[in-house]
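Today's session is about reading a structure prediction critically. Students often jump straight to the picture, but the first step is always the sequence itself: look for stretches that repeat, for charged clusters, for runs of hydrophobic residues. Only then move on to the predicted structure, which in these notes is written as discrete structure tokens rather than atom positions. Here is the chain we will use throughout the hour.
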Amino acid sequence: METLFGFIGSPFVNFMKKMEGFGAFIIFQLKLFPLMFKRPWRVKQIFEQTEVVGVGTFGVIFLTALFLGLIEAVQLYQGFSKFGAESFMGYTIFISISRELAPLLAGLMVTAQAISSMSAELGTMRVTEQIDAIETLAVDSKKYLLIPRIIATTVAVPLLVLAFDFISNFSAFLMAWFALDMNPVVYQDSIKQLLHFSDIGTGVIKGLFYGYLIGSIGAYVGYHTTGGAKGVGVATTRAVVLASVTVFIADLFISIIFLALDW
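Below is the predicted structure for this chain, in token form.
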């Protein structure tokens, strides 16, 4: 009987533990957010972390965007050519990348490259008591360590989204022109005639939200690491998984909001 009740109650207990962790994260963020607007600003650290996130992730962003554009051109040409609608390929590829794929994949690549590193770095500092040492010097460790990293990801991800847009759409254009023998003028005209500012702005705004969310998750998980070297590995994996899933969940809700606003 005890085994039966344990089997039935275990999922509920695990769910409540997850909700407790989520609540702790929200409370932590509510306390952390006002620190962004308090002196000292630590501009130098923000620029250093922005370089780490932006420049450090650009290589994987470039490769992902390059091959995504090539794949998009091949796959859409295969479908559109059956209906004689190749003239709409340019705009369709553009909005699919700029509105959805660019911010989504940029967020995931930053998570894999930068957030994992951020969580591991903060986790190592926690288990080796470096964070405790900072606090003994009367320095707010959250303001000193977390805020620059969160601001850096919030700034870097939208910029990476814009880079992703350009690289991916340009590679798709080249594929359509040289490999698929499409008329480049027709390809470009479909974009010029149908493109709206919101097609680009939507992706940039998504990148802004994704950057803040994944930066906050990476900072929170790394800052609260326990369990020595093994705990650092667990925390890094946890940060990447949580940040990746959060990007998809946020993408759904932001897309619904933009749809409701007709933007």
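Discussion point for the tutorial: The chain has a mean pLDDT of 91.
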